[in-house]
Amino acid sequence: MQRVIIAVALGLVAAAASASATAQTSQGQAAAAGCSESGPLPNQIRCFIDAAQSAGDVGLCDGAYDFAVRFNCISLYAERSADPAPCERIPIRNNRMLLLRDSCIAGVAAATRSPQLCEQVQLAVVRDGCFLTQVVEFDGAAELCARITKTVVKELCFAPPADPK
After folding, report:
1. Rounded to a whole number, what is the distance in angstroms from the first to the last CA of the chain?
2. What range defines the domain where residue 153 resides?
């Protein structure tokens, strides 16, 4: 009898959580509905990211007609949620798209100060920049410089800081 009551209670909690998530998604979709008409691209980006974050649904970024708005919304969502998974929403159809996805992942790595995320970056130029950022901007360990593949960037990484005169 007690198991039945617990099972029913758990079912009610799950149903309430599902209804809450559905309501939150509906509110987010309603908020994103007017974003494409919200003026210049920076306003649209802000509108879409606000809607996506309030709903907890990066999928709302897909409602943007302009690719630049969609990409920025996805990237900002990933950075603010400290999760590179939303970057996977950027389809890799060519090297430009790969560059955008890699930039998204590098942005999450910078936002979270997580050099291990740099390993997920496929393009060497973006990966090298990702590691360099960890060392220079965040005082990361110099051994990260050894992971850089381009000689010029590696030398820059190992160089002593400039004298601030």
Report:
1. 78
2. 94-165
Using the 3D structure, point to which of 49, 81, 113 is the last residue of a domain: 81
- Both 108 and 157 in one domain: the answer is yes
20 pLDDT higher than 80: no
Burial-class residue 58 by CB neighbours within 10 Å (0-12, 13-18, 19+): buried
Tokens encoding 98: 């790969």
Q: Residue 159, class by beta-carbon neighbours within 10 Å (0-12 exposed, 13-18 middle, 19+ buried)?
A: exposed
Nearest to 136 by CA among 152, 113, 165, 116: 113
Q: How far apart are CA 58 and CA 74, in angstroms?
A: 6
Q: What is the value of pTM for the model shown?
A: 0.77
Phi, psi of 93 (to 5 degrees): -105, -20
**Is residue 153 in a domain?**
yes
pLDDT, residue 84, reads 97
Residues 64 and 100 in one domain: no
Reading the block at residue 115, the tokens are: 């050099």
Instruction: Tell me how far apart the alpha carbons of residues 128 and 118 are, in angstroms, rounded to a whole number.
Output: 8
CA distance 11 to 112: 37
